[in-house]
Amino acid sequence: MLTLNSQSDPEFVAAINTRDAKLRFKRVWAVCKKKRRCENEDRQQNKDEEFAPGMKPAPVESHGGCGNVQPQVRQVALQLKAAYEVAQEDGPKRKESVPITPEMAHGILRRISEPDLRNMGLNSDYARPEWMILTVLPVPPPPVRPSISMDGTGTGMRGEDDLTYKLGDIIRANGNVKQAIREGSPQHIARDFEELLQYHVATYMDNDIAGQPRALQKSGRPVKAIRARLKGKEGRLRGNLMGKRVDFSARTVITGDANISLHEVGVPRSIARTLTYPETVTPY
């Protein structure tokens, strides 16, 4: 994300003066995504020097940019790739793709200043951009992922929940990353371990990512991730919280009541008025 320290760009000034924070973020993004270089000088000053080469240009505040070319960032599976245009001595420019590691992204986002955050429509108290990259993984307590008895007696072997198995995979993958860093393994080996850790964390959250192989149990059954437990009509929100769903219950409008006899049932007035009933109209 590129922002300007000066107020020389009228399109940028109009974007940051938007009151609604969400709309401000969209407008600032629309301005910044067209920038292909981190600007460090004023464009109007260059134009004045071209038309009046003998005149001494007025001092103009620098943007403070580094002047580097900005890459095009694309998501490939669970990775981010930065595509740069590299100039060649004897031919046209060629594109070179470089992976953006989580450490690189976290470092870039962490260095965004408070004024730039406000200009982008973010609140630093609640929405620091680097918080979108997990550095600590919350672990749900056992009631969220209960173990079940394999023989039904509660005393024999117990089978663990899918989330518990996935957490075990994450712990093992994280241990491999630590060991590779500690032993000074080659960069490509450490990177492979990091990608495996990223895969386990991603499929722990959502096992239906497009273009990504699903995590499977030993039986070949797909792992039921956190997202699958929350979403949809049968999920935790709509199924268990917004509406009560329990076993061994029926649903009816015809019920017994403490105010009527044992051999009678009550029917709501609105239902009773629209019920059809048989009526004999012939003698047979």
Automatic annotation (TrEMBL):
GO molecular function: DNA binding; DNA-directed RNA polymerase activity
Domain of life: Eukaryota
Transferase recorded as keyword: yes
Keyword annotations of the record: DNA-directed RNA polymerase, Nucleotidyltransferase, Transcription, Transferase
EC number: 2.7.7.6
Catalytic reactions of this protein: RNA(n) + a ribonucleoside 5'-triphosphate = RNA(n+1) + diphosphate
Transcription is among the record's keywords: yes
UniProt feature, compositional bias: Basic and acidic residues: 38-50
TM segment ranges: none
Principal EC category: transferase
Pfam families reported in the protein's UniProt record: RNA_pol_Rpb1_1, RNA_pol_Rpb1_2
Domain (RNA polymerase N-terminal) ranges: 130-284
GO biological process, one term: DNA-templated transcription
Region (Disordered): 36-63
GO cellular component, one term: RNA polymerase II, core complex
Function: DNA-dependent RNA polymerase catalyzes the transcription of DNA into RNA using the four ribonucleoside triphosphates as substrates.
Protein family (similarity comment): Belongs to the RNA polymerase beta' chain family.
Cited PANTHER family: DNA-DIRECTED RNA POLYMERASE, DNA-DIRECTED RNA POLYMERASE II SUBUNIT RPB1
Protein name, UniProt field: DNA-directed RNA polymerase subunit
Organism name: Hypomyces aconidialis
Upper classification of the organism: Eukaryota, Fungi, Dikarya, Ascomycota, Pezizomycotina
